[in-house]
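Same chain as my last thread, 165 residues:
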Amino acid sequence: MHQLKIHKSTGVEPQSAAIAAKFENLAEKIRERAYDLFCRRENGGSALEDWLAAEREFIAIPEAELIDAKDKFEIRMAVPGFEAGQIEITASPGEIAVSAESLHRHEGNGEAVLFSEFGRRAFLRRFEMPGPVDLDKVAARLQDGILTISAKKAAPKEKAQLAAA
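reply #2:
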């Protein structure tokens, strides 16, 4: 079992801007690819099909579940093939964002690779939390290809302070 580092953000730090930039960069790549597919299409199909095809090329959406337990929220995601060091988690009081990237490179050991489906794998997923969380009590672990993120619910006093901010 591997523990993962959590970046904690109140929404104004550079980390928040960085995760927002990742989402915007990804959206731009999808827009460009969808337009390219649209321009290459001869007859039939639709702009929506082009958009969805472009999304599938850039985004893997891991299966996940969000559980509301008595005193915490828990996210479980299937991330087989990713290592703890490849996963980045950013938590803010109202959301948790998870991204990962893995790139396969062939080692130069003199063997000729005749066929390979290994390549770049990545995902970027954002979970809007049903209520505020205590950033000091967010933890994550990776075991057997399942990423589990536990986020303790903010105390009522913290909820009132967050609402006033």
